[in-house]
Amino acid sequence: MDRRPGYRSSGGQEPFFSGVVEELIEAVRVIAELDIPGSSGRPLRPELELISDQSGGRIRDPRLDVRPPGEGLHAWEAFWSVWNGQRVEYSELEAYSRLTRDELEPWEVDAIRRMDGAVSQVIADRTRGSHE
Q1: Element spanning 49, H or E
Q2: Which residue, 129, 127, 128, 126, is CA-closest to 33?
Q3: How many Å apart are CA 49 and CA 72, to the nearest integer?
Q4: Per-residue confidence band for 1, with pLDDT thresholds at 50, 70 and 90
């Protein structure tokens, strides 16, 4: 029986962690869409920030203000520590935990793998020239 916070005795994540994971995935997807260059070779964020600056903040894309949920910051920081533009493997997460002595909870490993999938999808879309 798993008695860790956020886990049911029958297994699986509680709805709380499921919501945090979904928020992490959405935040990383938005960040990737803003910061990964598209077919033009340029990321979108600088253009949106320029528009915001030139309008004195009157025209501001809400994606510029996306942040990860506070409850998911540990997984967020671990993701960006191990992500190198390639798929994140379990062995990399295990090495991260071992070398940093920073143990990841199972729901965080799931979140990191799903965040990786979201970033990979943005990259795939960008290389096909969509979403620009």
Answers
A1: helix 45-54
A2: 126
A3: 26
A4: very low
Give this prediction's pTM. 0.80
Confirm if 82 and 88 have CB atoms less than 8 A apart.
yes
Structure tokens at 111: 């979140």
Q: Using an 8 Å Cβ cutoff, are 17 and 6 in contact?
A: yes
d(CA 122, CA 32): 7
CB contact at 8 A, 86 and 119: no
Nearest by Cα to 71 from 125, 120, 124, 5 = 5
Rounded distance, CA 55 to CA 124, Å? 33
- Residue 128 pLDDT class (50, 70, 90 cuts): confident
In one-letter notation, the amino acid at residue 65 is D
Tokens 């979201």 map to which residue? 118
Distance CA 84, CA 92 (A): 11
